[in-house]
Amino acid sequence: MRKTRDPNAPIIKPGAKIAIKWFVFVFFAVFMHASSTSGSAGPKALLLFPLAAAVAVFETEIPSAVFGSAAGLLLDVALGKLPGFTALWLCICCAGMSALFGSLLRRNIVNYLWSFALTGGIYLYTDYYFYYKIWAYEGYELVLRHRLIPSALKTLAWSLPVFGAVYLTERLCGSSRKMKLEEQDKNIDRV
Amino acid sequence: MKEFFSSKKFIVIACIAAFLIGIMIYAAVSSTNAVSSAVGTVFAPVQRFSQNISDAVSETLDMLINARDYYEENQSLKEQLAALYSQMSDYTQVMQENDHLREMIDLAASNEGIELSEPCNVIGRVANDVYGSFFIDKGEKDGIEYYDPVVTANGLVGYVTEVEYTYSKVTPLLSNEISLGVYCVRTGETGVTEGGYELALDGKIRMVYIPLECQIREGDIVITSGYSGTVPKGIVVGTVGETFIASNGLSRSGYITPTVDPYDLKTVFAITDFDGKGSAYEEN
Q1: Model-level pTM?
Q2: Cβ–Cβ of B13/A62 closer than 8 Å?
């Protein structure tokens, strides 16, 4: 007897959807790492930062922390910083953001933007403090004005399309909530 | 909140954070680290591919956007060419001067003991670095070592400051971490170069400890003295710009424009060995 396909069954299995989703995120990460070390000189947008934050908006704490750590390590290599410096920060921030969005905040672009701007701002200051200000080399303030702030502004501007890309990926590949209408049960007394 | 801190989630996240702190400590206490090396090995082909695309796009855009500038530059070069033709009569004199300069810097002798690496391609740049540090596609497996000088045909670029198995990081002369002994080809007066953030933004370095009564003037060529044992003698560093009395009043300082622009490099060479390498360290 020929097996008939359940019309309610999804075309792509949920497991495959998850795999595709993470493959897309990893692809984004590789592309963004390459883009930050290519091209002309000057301040660059650090796209891995908003990517990790956007993933944290939609994922649970542990995947967010792992993805944030990996993205942070890539950023450390791209920025020539001590491996683990950005990774540790992104690990904590992504886990925190994920917990916040899971229980307190609505998953929308406004909440994403302010939370990303806040975490990014703190990172910017720690980067400036530990890599430049603490050593007080001649003209260290210029780095803030000519490199770090322009780079941060570019990153903030790019965070919108990055959020859009992650949102679309989640919509297309994420697990969706299914609601089923059941027939009226006459045994239930409705007031 | 209390429940969260005793949950498995928190323990896993704390473990990841502890692992990352471990990586940081390991990276801080060792000259090379497995994380950078592994990431670099995996991403080197991607970086190279991305850099090629970026270069192609930049060149095309540059041609389209700067067509007028190139036209003007062409006109100016034509004028310069005409001026050069008129200077042909001084050719013999220039040749003699050139020979004299060659004798002075003893280029031939200094080149004899130099061992160059294979051509190293620039595969990526350190993001947001003021000095223009970049990555090359040669590493430990190609015989590159920490603090090898990096050069092009035009002069000294900088030093290798990070060596991984398949790639290395080069820090240009503009960096405030690099100082080297130099002297003026024409006058023989010596000095020491140093970089800084402000100077790097103008693409310059500073030459300090020049004698107060020096004869150095704008346009003079400065080459390495080789005294430190970190770089061979006689490699061109740059041309002298404005000079001024240093703030201590005991010596003069001057700006130097390096002959090699680190932002404009595609291929470089590392000097893997040279006569007198490390001699300054051995003496100490």
Answers
A1: 0.72
A2: yes
